[in-house]
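# nightly structure sweep
# worker-07 picked up a monomer target from the shared queue
# config: single-sequence mode, recycle default, output format = structure tokens
# input follows
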Amino acid sequence: MTTTVKPQPHAGTHMKRPLKITLWIVGILVAIPVIAIVILLTFDWNRAKPWLNAKVSDAIDRPFSIRGNLAVHWEVPAKSIPKGERSWRDYIPWPHLYADDVHVGNPAGLPQRDMASVRQFSFSLDPFALLGHRIHVPVLRFDGPQAELLRLDADHYNWAFKHDDKKSKWKLDLDRLVLTQGVVHVQDAVTKADVTASINTLQNDPTYGLAWTLSGSYHGAPLGGGGKTGTVLSLTESDIRFPIQADVHSANSRIAVEGTVTNPAHLAGIDLQLKLAGPSMARLYAFTGVVLPETPAYSTEGHLTGSLGQNKSNWKYENFKGKVGESDIAGGIEFATGKPRDKLTGKIVSHQLRFADLGPLVGADSNASKRARGVDDVQPEGKALPVEKFHTEKWKKLDADVHFSAERIIKDANLPLSKLQTHLIMDAGVLSLKPLNFVLAGGQVNSNIKLDGSGNGTGKDAIKATLDANARHVQIKQLFPKIEKIQQATVGEINADAKLTSTGDSVAGMLAGANGEIKGLVSQGVVSKLLLEEAGLNVANIVVTKLFGDKQVKLNCLASDFNVKNGVAQTEYFVLDTEEAIVDVNGWVNLSTEQMNLRVKPETKGLRLFTLRTPFYVQGTFKKPDLALDKKVLAIKGGAAVALAVVAAPVAALLPLINTGPGEQSPCAKLLADAHVKPTAPPPGKSAKR
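# output follows
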């Protein structure tokens, strides 16, 4: 029996087969990217332009075309990036796409011309990121860009692109943006802007790579300026600071910044020295969206830091100093976006505040001043109360919580004001100054003011206003420190209370519909024509001159109580007690027409009957007061018996109340007793009760 023995395969055969399979797999894996790279480098990409143009046009909802050559090259990104801004990834070679003569048109509804064009558009692409549905572009470069940003009205502009609500599987990662020489033109019918920015490349500048200049007009005023920036804008590196320097001016407005922006794609870190100047802080609304009051010309310089988040942004302007008119200001403010409204908080101080610089806050400046700060010269020539309207439509866009204080307040006539303090709160269109306090001539003036501009049932611009104020222990000597005769003789003081409500859209409008009460008290002092002329009190000067001539007269007390109804202040009680006479005043002052009609009736004290003067009227307007004699009352020139019969009764009734001077039976004492019954005012929009 023969046994056949089969030969066994060599052990190395089993080893070679897996090795060959492995080598084949490795070869295929190597060959695929090599073949892909070869295709990328050898394929005529111009064949893909029609397809690419159509797809991009559809995606951005406007014409797109590559009119020049389209090619791909293998390059290292680092060569186009400054040495100080390179990272290790910039030394990895990637395919680099070049597109020449690229154009982007305007969307439908706008003039059909180029929105933008570029001499050459290029970017590098990470091919391995495509495997993870990620388009990673390390560097995107624009050579010779030309852009025209156009806005015809609030709803038609060309810089908004169509966004698909459907979530894409692909993610775009853009690391850096590189710009070279180019031009950007802005035409905006809303802001009346026609501005051209020319961009040029800088050579051998260690900080900046680009310089730009501005020319044109904004809001009808000439616009100019320029600045510098870095060449490479990093959009992902959170620790790279992008340098910025700019100085732009239009008419008498100016904004200048210098500093850096970190992570510019999200404005995550803004660190700038900011200088601002302009005709009024209110004009900043068009640039910042922050509601600020009307002011005289201003200039400030401070440190601006901030960040722009997806749902909330925060900005701080700290350690700023500057001037508003001829007043100094300093402090810090913070602006934060959010719900239900953006909010402004801060603390501002002034060491020396010029009283006239407060005028634009309520429209009480001249027409020339109004024109200088960019508003219409609406103040009528013969009207004293400000008619400039408050723009309440902006009040509901911002809440505020700001503290303001001023150490010293300067007025042309040396009015001794100081230590102004107020807490301004804006909440849902309601502006409150609680409190608004200041020191006046050694006394204290305290007030609370509320201006409701929310428009709840009062119309678009109407403001429901409330004023509650009092003045205590205002010293007459300190009130007129430059008048030597008052310093030598006057020892009295002034006390007053006021409570008013109204509805209107300006200071004049609110006073024209005011309702409430005003009470005043002046105890002791000296009055004369000369003193009142020096003090600038024109109406009082006319009255005193008519009563007493040019001589000095000792004042025991002046007591007044006005009832205000629908803008008309009617005298309830107005008595002037001097050493020579008792003067009774009655009548009205119309705050709407700015006219007055007051009957001044003097009664001579004692038996000096032959010095009794005829009653007269103070009439006319606030700006042009006039006097008229009461012809119905004849001056007494005859016997004492007749004079006593005419005068004795009213004088006898008034003497126990007035003639004793300061004391329990004086009118000052009576008014102080009446002060326990505080002035009242109806709700805004309601008439006061008689």
